[in-house]
Amino acid sequence: MIHKIKAMWDGGRGSSQRAIAEQLKVSRNTVKKYLAMSAEEVAAYRARKGRAKRLDAHRAYIEHLLESYPRMSAVKVLRKLEAAHGELSVSSRTMRRYIEQLRETVVAKQARYYEPVLDMVPGAQCQVDGGELRGVVIDGVGTTVYLMVFVLSYSRLLYVAASLRPIDTGELIRMHDAAFRYFGGQPRECVYDQTKLVVIEEAFRELRLNSRFARYATTAGFTIRACEGYDPESKGKVEAGVKYVKDNGLYGERFSDVAHLEAHLAEWLDTVANARVHATTGHVPREHYAREEQATMRAYLTPAGIAALAPPDLDTRKADKTGLITYKANKYSVPLPWQRARVGVCEEGGQLLVCDPASGEVIARHTLAVGSGEIVKNTHHYRDRAQQIADLEAAIAESLPQVLATRLCALLKASEPRIYRDQLRGVGRLLVAHAPVDSGLIERLCQKPRLTATLLRDHLDAHAARCERTGAHTPAMTVEASDTVGAAALARYAGIGADNREVVR
C-alpha cells in the first residue's frame, strides 16, 4: 500500500492526494502520513506491521464468525472464541482493533449507533419497547421472534421477554408481570411508543388508552406515559436496548426449541447484559440497581386478573411446513399463520382443539379421527384457490368483453386443467402488456381446439410485429389463413429436389 501510494504520487508529479485516497479507498490522512515517511521509516513500519499477532492463530474462526454474522460485535466474538478455545489473555480492546483490520477484507464495517441518554431519578421510570428479529434458527427453521424489552432508566437493569407469535394485549400484560417480578418491584411510570397495545388514539397529546391494558396498569399501580409519535429519543434507552438484545443476545445463535431460547435469554441477562459495565453509567446494572434503585421501587403484587390470563396446561405439537400436526397416529391441519409453529392440543367432546399455547385461545377444531394414518383438513386453513382463480378470471374480463373473456377462460381450462391458475395469471399479464388487444384476434383463437398462454403470447407478439412493420394496426391474419400458408410453405420445401432424385437399385 505504501509503495503504491508513493508511486501514484510520483514526487508530486502524479495523482493528487485526494485522487489517490479515492482510488485506493483510504483516508486522505493515511495518504498524507505515508507520503511523509522516509525510506527508513517505511522499512521499520513494514517490519512492525509484519509481526505475528496473538489472535492470528484464531483468524480462521474469527473470519468465519464475521462472514456468517457481519454485525457481530467484537465483545461477542471474544466471548464465543473463549467458549470454543478456552480463556485467552486478550482484552476486548485488542479484539476490537484486530476485527477492525479484518473487516477491511471480510465485511464492510458497520456504522456505530449513537443514542442520547438522560439521567433519571431512581425508581421513577421504566422504558418499554418491542421489536422483532427474523431468521432466528429454532429447530432448524428460520423463525421470527417477537421481543419486548424493559429497561430501568436509572440503573439500566434490563429484562427481555420473547414470543413466537405477534404480541397481543394479554401477552403484553403477562410480559409486564414477568418483568416486574424479575426486577423485584415496579417503577412509578412506564414509557411506551404509540403502539395500539397501549395507546388507541392520540389527538393534541390527549390519549385514548387500550382499556384492557389501562385496567392492568391502574390495578398494578404504575402510570402510563406515551412519547410523541416519531420521536424515538423520548425513550432512547430502550431503543438502544432493543438493538443490543438483537445484536448481542440473539444474533448468530441457534436454538433447539422455545424453551432453549428462553433459557438462553435468561442466562444472557444474568451473565452478560446486567453483568457488564454499562458504557454510559459506568456501573454494572445489577450492582447499580441493588445499591441505589431497588429500595426506591414500589412493591408489586401480581393482580388477580393475571391468573385468568395464564396459559393453560396443554400438550404441544409442532406443525410441519404443510400446516399439519400429528396427534394419535393421525394428522390435522392448523391455520396458515401457524404453519411451522408450535400449538397446543387437547380433546373435548369428541373433538380435537388446537390452541394458541401462550393464551389458550382455540384456533381450530377437528372431529377426532377413529382410525390411523388419516389426514383431517379444514379447507379454510389454506389459501382459497377458488377465490384466486375467480380474481384472475375477473382481471381478464377487464381487458376483454365479458362473453369473449368467458370463452377464453373456458378454452384455457379445457386445454391445461392442471395448471389453469398459472395459465390465467400468464394470460392476464399478456393482455395488460399488449393492451389494447385486438378482440378479433382473440375471437379467432377461441375457435381453435386448444389454446395455452404460450400460444397466445406467440400470436400477440406476431400481431404486434406486423403492426409495427406496417405502421398501423392492420387486421391480423386469420388463424386459418396462417395455418394454410404455413402448410403450403412446408409442402413447397418438401418438394425441393424431388425431380432430381435418382433411384438406386
Label this structure with key terms.
single chain, 505 residues, alpha/beta, Nucleotidyltransferase, domain 5, 4 domains, 6-stranded mixed beta sheet, 19 helices, 15 strands, 45% helix, disordered C terminus
Overview of this protein structure:
- The protein is an alpha/beta fold.
- The protein folds into four domains: 2-103, no CATH class; 125-308, 2-Layer Sandwich (Nucleotidyltransferase, domain 5); 311-381, no CATH class; 385-493, no CATH class.
- The chain is built from 19 helices and 15 strands.
- It has helices spanning 2-9, 17-24, 28-35, 39-49, 59-68, 74-85, 92-103, 169-183, 211-220, 236-250, 258-273, 285-293, 304-309, 385-399, 402-415, 420-433, 439-445, 453-470, 479-495; strands at 125-138, 141-152, 158-163, 189-192, 199-203, 206-209, 223-226, 254-255, 315-318, 324-327, 330-333, 342-348, 351-355, 362-367, 375-376.
- Strands 1, 2, 3, 4, 7 and 8 form a six-stranded mixed β-sheet that branches. Strands 9-12-13-14 form a four-stranded antiparallel β-sheet, with no helix packed on it.
- α6 crosses α7 (92-103).
- The chain is extended.
- It starts with a helix and ends in a 10-residue tail after the last helix.
